[in-house]
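Methods: example folding runs. The two proteins below were folded one after another, and each record is reproduced exactly as written to the output file, sequence line first and structure-token line second.
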Amino acid sequence: MRTGKLVRKYLQAIAVILAGTLTGCGDGSSHPGTDIENIALADIRYTLAPNLTKDGSNSVDVTLKFKGEMDGVTQLMVGGKWGGVENSRQRFRDLSIEGEDIVLPKNLNKYILDVGHKPGHEVTVSYRLSEADMRDAATNIEYFYTPVLNDDVIHLIGTHALVIPFRDNKDDKFSVSLTWENLPAGWKTIDTLPGEDIYSRWIGQQVVAAAPSHYIHRDGPLTILKVDAHDFEQDAFNERIGDGFNALTRLWGTEEQDYLVSLLGTLDSWDHGSFTGTGRFNSFASAASRDFALNDIGPVLIHEITHHWIPGQLGNAEVCQTDNPSDCPPSVKWFSEGFTDFVAVQVMISEGHWDRRDLVAFTNAYLRDYYISPARNATGKAIDKLFWQDFEHERQPYWRGFLIAMNWDAETLTFTKGSASTISALQSLREAAANSEDNRPILTAEYIAENFSHQRPRIEDIERYYVKGETIEIRPDLFPDCADLKVEPIQSYDVGFDPDATLSTGIVTSVQSDHNAFKAGLRNRQTLIAKVSGGGGETSAPLVLEVKDRDTVKTISYIPVGGEPIMVPQFEITGDCSANYIYGE
């Protein structure tokens, strides 16, 4: 999930989901679902002891014990560079490593350490995580990637909170245990460690949390941790996410598997429609500002939960074996992100939270954003290269993949007279992967397209619209008896200043002198107090900002558009959209 944006309605999602299972809520005395005897025998054992002081200096003392490698050298990861966090190593305070014949590297400030020890003997690592170390991340909504140690929640992501011993044989699995000590009365614990052995490299993917029990909701295999105030009630959030999770379980016809969704709040200064999240081991961890609407956050989180199945349970990722990345084919992000969006909106409809009017609005938003994007005709390789650097390139797989999925769905339903759909093809993909045992399919563009081909080879669309970057031609029959396709001029959404710099500092930056914002009175060096209304990609309503100019508070209102209009396909509701269909039926 990228940050620093005035979030466009219905947008924002990045995820990396690994398969696994989630243990249930514990009482703080031991790893949930694991008895004391098994904890003592675990290969890798963590003990976490919080010190909650109520004065802004909370901390957690962490102890790690493990059996060292038989060759006398074990590699430890102390923090990592995942999520763009470059200084996580510095947050492992007072690090000490003890054991027989310990030999430490000269430089302990590196995040990969080769530690010498007596072959096969136990090594103990101790360190402290501190709330004070969150302060350098507090200006960024992705603060929650770092250890969150508030008075009402401890939320840790493995990569940046747990020292991880890596094994020489990366294919070996080990038992891992977590024990909590000193938790306040009434607190419960959650973690995503499965009740089976795992690869040590998976430890970094875990979410480990503790909070007062009323913040934790358990519904069968789904656990929800929601902390801090939002403009929607906790019960409504639990119901929305629970409905989506149950619908996905039914859609894929899978046995219930444990899953964790955590939602934290943001600082008061981030009260401007912000949302961010990251997929972890059988979980999705996220944060949203107070004003982020439930109707917007619902499809985003359902998208992320859908990643539990797409792409991981449909096949294995293609690995390009070459020293020159330019020789590799474009990734299938159009499938893993765009088709995930498609499934998510179908779930919203099936559960009664949306109807086809909402789907028309969602499709129009994607068409609008795609058509006005300066990266609309970027090649697949350019998207891969710039995905993590440029928002417009990052969004292309979502927009293009979703529109392709909608086209294919309408085409398949028409050709098969309703006997097949995009959803049924996805279900067939999962069934093929589930029945393949150790020879799982490789998710190449060709393999995916073959499973959707009926009257023609669908790989042609991927080559044209994604690999080469031709503009997608949307089918006019996406919404029969509901909406007709037309073309209308749309101006690009443009706030008229640098939102990233402004939101990160609170000081208005780079106001365009020929923009509506400047004409309305917005100036560089004014202090941004709040977004009152508008924004989020909306070009038909004013963006209203409250700013402070020296000692005067001003309200700035203007239409956030710029440039010449672009002709964009849009669907106009002309019929009855109330008759919902479920999963293409």
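Second run, written to the same file directly after the first:
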Amino acid sequence: MAEGAGIGRITVRGAKTGETSGLFGAKAARAAVMCLLLAAVAAFLAVYDPHDPPEGAVRLDRVEEVTFVAEDTGAVVARMDDVTLPQDWRIDVPVSDEAPLGLVEGHYRLAFRPPGDMTEPLALLIPRVARTVAVSLNGVPFFDQNDLSADTRWAWYDPTLVPVPKGLLAPDENRLDIVVFGSFRSTAGLSRLILGERKAVERLYRRLSFLQKPLPIFANLASLVMAVPLFLIWLHGRGARGGPFGAYGILAAAVAIYSVRSMHVYVGEAPLPMSVWLPLVSASLGWAASLFSVFLLRFVNASSPVVERGIAIFIVAGTALQFGFPDGPFMQARTLYWYVPVMLLGTSCVAVFCYRTLVEPDRDRVVVALSLLLLVPAPVHDLLWLRGFLPFGSLLWLPLVVPAVLLAVSTVSANRFARDWVAADALNRNLTRRVREAEEEIRSSYEARLEAERREATAEERSSLIEDLHDGVGNRLSILLATLQTRTIPKAQSIRSLRESLNDLRMVITARDTGTLGDGLGELSALQSGLLETGGIELVTEIEPRAAALRLGPRRLLNLLRIAQEAISNAARHGAAGTIGLTCRLRDGDRLVIEVQDDGGKEKGAAGDAALSSGRGLSTMRSRALRLGGELAVEPSRDGWRVRLDIPVRDMDERPAASSRHGPASTTSTGRDRSQPEAAPAALRSGGSGLGL
């Protein structure tokens, strides 16, 4: 099932050859049901007459004489004898040149005998009368609407109840004179009269009043209320492309326009000039009908831009003719030239909707289609009344049927949206619950994994620390212990060995406690104090700022420092150098280069005997370089030997450390005692001489 641009659903069904007859049979059955319903509604509208007099009442429909008098001049413009009510002035009365557009008084004279018992109070019911009416009984006036307010005088659609004074009624023949005020070119006339017992006539009056005034008002107000949620649906969803929200907005506009427009019959006096008011009332019906037609087509996905543009052109042209020529032939004959085409437009769209419902039915379409069937006989009935083919006093069904249909369609549309919204909300709640459960599961899994990684990291760190201590401090102490157990060694040698062990321990601690490479190299210079002080060797250190700010892991930093330590130690022990240079820089932005160079000549120097004999020190340095993923080169330089370490820095953090204790300048150090622990960093900060030990 796919959702189209409208709010209807398209169901694509595949049918085998053998299923064709069944499919057509189902369509025929649905069509027959719709036709039967349409015929039943039409028959009801044609047969039902709410004006049937109650028991004991009589219907007065024979008029002896009708005289039409121009209200301004008092001249008789028409006279008719033996007239049968109801009489519609637009059809039955010829328009006289003496009062072509002005107000006219229609004087009706009737003779009647009182019904039933004269002891009960009587009342006269006029189901419909044009504008205002005055009533006289046996020559005595007793009812005149000219004394009423303007709102009442213009309520031509309302029935009029006239209580009959008991003293004026004769036991045999009575003469009733009724004066109707109206215009030949307006909806004017007089319906059949009902005379009977006052209580019974009042019940009929209340029924007619309810059908003709409160019920249409309540229906239009209910439709107008339903337009509000439809408008809100469109308002909040108008930014969505390809959604059904545009159809909701069109339906809301159609409902609002028609509901407001239908209230015009209850307006006492026109709030605008008649040249504007009448075209507005007439054209607004076309606006509402065209918008509702577009909505119906979109509901079943039968609309297109061409069709909607054609409807818009038709409505705009008809509106322009009415406002452009408010007194022209088009406006005067608007029933034929405007209301009939609008009715045909709406009927065509209803037919398309019903056909689509027969082909692709669903619950909402069926409900709307059944309610739309009321729209076909009701406007036909009222148009026949407008053209004079139905009695003047007939009840108009369009003010009742259209609000009911609009209310039903609006309810179905809002219900569809509400149903989808509830389903979406339930789905959203379910998804939210599942997301929470998944988040909780992921959180628990993450915490468990984090705890496992923490334990693994702790174990790895413990193992790494044990390995570093074993390879460095442990190895040196083991050798010293074994030597002391076999022979006696000089005190100075023991002190040197213990100091080297202590320095190695400090190296391990430095690698784990130092923030940056610059800090580590500074600590390395301090740890070499004893060796450099004994040999009177000067250490010159140069570290680029970016290289100094590099952060390395403890193992990587320890391996790097031990390579540099071994190179410095070799240069100090085996060379004849007076100066050892330690440089650290970045090459090409992603390679770290550390060089240890001495000036002890090419025969002895930075590599010492290790460079010539490939001893254990050089092998260990190469092994550590491989762990760092780099290369170690031992080569002669201009004045001595140079050990060059080249490693990648792609896995290192190059952000500067806020707690770095070194400076970017070149430094020179002479021998200083390690008992002054801050001497080397202070020299680095000040740029003075010496990483002295």
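Comment on the second run: The chain has three domains: 58-211, 214-414, 515-686.
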